[in-house]
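User: Continuing from earlier, I have the next pair ready.

Assistant: Great, send them over.

User: Here they are, in order.

Assistant: Folding the first of the pair now:
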Amino acid sequence: MRILVTGASGMLGREVVESARRAAHEVDALDHHSLDITDDVAVRDVLDTHRPDLIVNCAAFTAVDRCEADPDLAFAVNATGPRHLAAGARSVGARLVHVSTDYVFDGTKVGPYTEHDLPNPQSVYGASKRAGELEVLKLGPDGLVVRTAWTFGRHGANMVKTVLAARSSTSPLRFVHDQVGSPTSAADLSGLLIDLATAAASGVIHAANQGSVSWYEFVGEILRQCGDDPGRVEPIRTVDLDPPRAARRPANSVLTSVRLADYALRGLRPYESALGEVLAELSNG
């Protein structure tokens, strides 16, 4: 299968490229400089040139607070871009896998969110990503939206690297305890994306590592696995963040899937195991 990956230089995009190549697929890896998905002409030209069987869209504007300040850019990248990719996929007969987010939910549910729960985004970022989902779902059986959460990995900026950089600091480590989610390994997620594509999955599917924790608990687990004292981390409330965050975050964004079994696929392993692998890889440089 010939796979075109957008956002291929990002944390998830790089892992998707590696996973696809390990599975012996032919891969065209395009970063933002190679393809601006907000440019419909560029999208059509690239797809006409490469003629992929599958497009995996990892391109996104994920700076949640910056989205509040620049909603036009957020919707251009996260909604209009997927619309262009969907139109291009239709024109060349390709399937489209689009990566979305837990932030499409409002966070008020008790218990994990499944694919059957109704989105109700509370931020510009969440609203723009939901708009992108709807564009991809118009493809019907050729469109797949995969929602994930709290992604971490070897590449790019993420919470694991933030904590590792802060380990030597004498300043207190303060993280919120009133936001709960599903930490997810980019490497694990990338493999599942390729499996879902191979299985011709469609619609909406949730993909996250097992386990639900607050940011405070997640940071404590990172320190514990590094051999540090988790007691260094102090829990705070979201309202006590200084400076305050511009975008509203869901208090609960834990994801679970009731649809993976439709394709005889298993859910991802516990996040602690995936975290250990990432920490080992980062420590080995």
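And the other member of the pair:
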Amino acid sequence: MKLKVAIIDMNNGQANQGMRGIKEILSLYQQNNDVEFSLDIFDLRQKEEIPGLEYNIYFSTGGPGSPLEGTGERWENLFFDFLEQIKIYNEENDQEKKYLFLICHSFQLACVKFGLGNVTQRKSNAFGIFPINLTEEGKQDSIFGALTDPFFSVDSRDWQVIEPNAAAFEGFGAKILALEKERENVDLERCIMAIRFTNEIVGTQFHPEADPVGMKMYLLKDEKKNTIIENHGEEKYHDMLESLDDPARIRFTQTILLPNFLNEAVHSQLEAIL
């Protein structure tokens, strides 16, 4: 079985480990399952490239900067139109569906587009490997239900989605699957960490594609190391490095979430063919 996969690159030309992580998950999935992926990458923020509806599975990456800085720009309008097209296509087609996974920056933009919450700047940067709590909906979800509660993943953001719009969630049929860890001594609302927008569209604030090898390469760079120590302290930096060796943390999340999403997408395509 051969399926067409598109990745929307939101990195705006900046080096990152996320794209490599998604590619590696796709490659490993092909090896372990009777499926072949053809892959195309679309540089949206730099080149205003956007995929059409000829693909079966889509990923849209994280990226730098504010999710509000592109307001009114052509690349953002292209992305919002793309989201609308995927949603409408799935509503109008009972069998063949288009599957989309949104990560970090893309997740925030989708929340802006569909009015699901308030996108705000954090008081301080969040960067590290953090516990994330499943909601009751998340525990029952076909993708997230296989995770532990809490589970661990890489979180890297200056912005967040808070204050969910209950009416918009109900009207859209969306469900909150995960929330930021509870901080008993911090009087701030927990941000939304994952949403199932529709049966076929899922998004996370965190980085489920992150793997220990790529993360360690990132953390060992002098510039990043110095920034983390300056902002969070040397103890926090070494804790992050040690956490990468724990198989129950980001390695576990990486082997569960996106492969489960691919399972749903691939099985759906197979059912449509049969």
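Worth noting for the second one:
The longest strand covers residues 118-134. The mean pLDDT is 91.
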